[in-house]
Amino acid sequence: MKQVKIHIIYDNTSCRKDLIADWGFAAYVETDNRHILFDTGSDGRILLGNMSLMSIDPKQIDTVFISHHHFDHTGGLAAFLHENSDVQVIVPKSLRGVRRAREVIHVESEYTVDRGIFSTGELMDIEQSLVIETPAGLVVVVGCSHPGLERIISAAEFHGRIHALVGGFHGFSQYEILKDIDYVCPTHCTQHIKDIAFRYPTKYIHGGAGTQLTFPKTTGTT
């Protein structure tokens, strides 16, 4: 990919007063060849409302990538599919019951979504992460990192060096494994955001609904 844009739609916090913050995570990921909704948050009304305020049309999305089956990542899926069912939905093999989509793909091992876009496969029988190639290295988007961030990073690095890491890190505290990553944007369930920001002030990016990231090179808000 020449460039990857990530718009955080759904998060526990918001960087814009007009967007609703709620427990959960969702992001719109734009690449050269795909328009991906990564996870869908807890509430479809909030998901679609925030998308509208961010000028993200559900109809422009062609792929839905679900990291894992927990409700704070899947709760908005039915509402989204009501607006746009003409999508490919990529889910871990443990997630069943997705209906109305054009195609549902259950992922167990590493999977190629498209040229330069990959799933790590369902790690520890719970969660997959999204890996995207860029000229500066890999952009990795995670849901809650239930398999452990170290395991996710190891799986992603099969494709090369990691440039940026975005999403929920859960209780992660092995801060030294972030030292070779250029940018980190911990969101949602990350318990030690302040510690990560303190240890890596030049690579830390604040998240929240409304945040827009562009890789290579990042920043800003929508």
Total DSSP helices: 5
Mean pLDDT: 95
Distance between the termini: 21 Å
CATH topology: Metallo-beta-lactamase, Chain A
The secondary-structure element order is EEEHEHHEEEEEEHEEHE
- Unreliable stretches (pLDDT < 50, length at least 5) are 218-222
* Order of adjacent strands in the largest pleated sheet: 6-5-4-3-2-1-13
Radius of gyration: 16 Å
Short recap of the structure:
With 222 residues, the chain is α/β, with parallel strands linked by helices. It has 5 helices and 13 strands.
Key words describing this protein structure:
222 residues, 5 helices, globular, disordered C terminus
Walk me through what this model shows.
The chain is an alpha/beta fold and 222 residues long. The protein has one domain (4-215): Ribonuclease Z/Hydroxyacylglutathione hydrolase-like (Metallo-beta-lactamase, Chain A), CATH 3.60.15.10. It has five helices and 13 strands. It has helices at residues 44-53, 71-74, 77-83, 149-156, 193-199; strands at 4-10, 26-30, 35-38, 63-65, 88-92, 103-107, 111-114, 117-119, 130-134, 137-142, 162-168, 183-187, 212-215. The strands form two sheets. A seven-stranded mixed sheet has the order 6-5-4-3-2-1-13. A hairpin with a 2-residue loop joins strand 9 (130-134) and strand 10 (137-142). The radius of gyration is 16 Å and the shape is globular. The two termini are 21 Å apart. The model is unreliable at 218-222 (pLDDT under 50).
